[in-house]
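Cross-check.
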Amino acid sequence: MKDYPYPYPWKELPGTDKEMRFLAARFETMSVKERYLLEGASQLQSIQTAADMINLTEQLHCFTYYHGATNDEELGRYDAEYQSKVSPDLLPFLNLARWGRDLQEMHGGVYVSGGFVEQSSPYEEVYNGTNLSSLTGGDYSVRLKLSSEYCPEGVWVRLPDYELMTGEPDELAVALDEAVPLRLNKLSQVTLLEAKCCLDNIPDLASQYESLEQFIRDGNNLGYVLDERGQGMPCFEERFRAAMELENCTRLDHALDISQNLGCYDFIPAAQKWERYGRYLADQNGLAHLNGPAGRYFDPYAYCSQEIKRLGLHSCAQGYIARNDREFLYEFSSQPRQGPELTM
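Predicted model, tokenized:
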């Protein structure tokens, strides 16, 4: 991988001490695919300050990376194979270099040291100079640092990986091409050095799995859960985190089971969300006439307060929660946990 523009000379950018610490932490755990994305994105966007760089690293999802497409012919081949699903028998008769040139002209992307990067969605300001603590450091479920005899210092992988769904090389394929430059069973040749989870209640991830393959499957599944957000469930993230708090969840497999059983919890979020959630809850409970004139005078705060008492909900960091009598089904955990506990 080229030394420039990645690692980008971010230390030379004007910025505050907090911004520099944020960027240092972000670059420290940046995955191989994210590095390639940043290499291209930094050429497609103007970077003048540390704030510009923070906004860019927070929005790498606005860019698309085509792994291995380092020239016109390979870009044409990538699009033909992975996106247009051209028959392999037809490929030898296609002018792939022209295909790639046309794509580059239409999409306006750039070639980078590992492939091709284009901007695929609008890019906006998410960091306003005061909200560093609310930034994610890049969306992910789990980050893994993998090493091999070819790459003892290790490379980072950001899960979820979507190759099984899209057929296109994603985080694992890109990282393993960097760590194990052989066309073999690459996972068998790497060692897990470090792991981080986006859920701060789950520590010591590396010690929770004996199989790297199973670890990756669970990390992917958590990512899919977070991306789906309960298929539109109101206050999904708050409910999920409250349920994990209630269950004293410290394991990734247990968190996955909780995510699949959120209907086993009665939940009301913190009071600042009652205006909307109270109306949703009343509708779910079949309270009539909210769509008529009475709806204008409905008090969602009074209704949420009543439901907290009626359901016997306990206070937690995300609002109020309690287990109900629905059956909790275990799919990922090795064995059922004890009953829920909550420190009041």
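The first helix runs from residue 17 to 28. Confidence is low (pLDDT under 50) at residues 339-344. Passed to J.P. for a second look.
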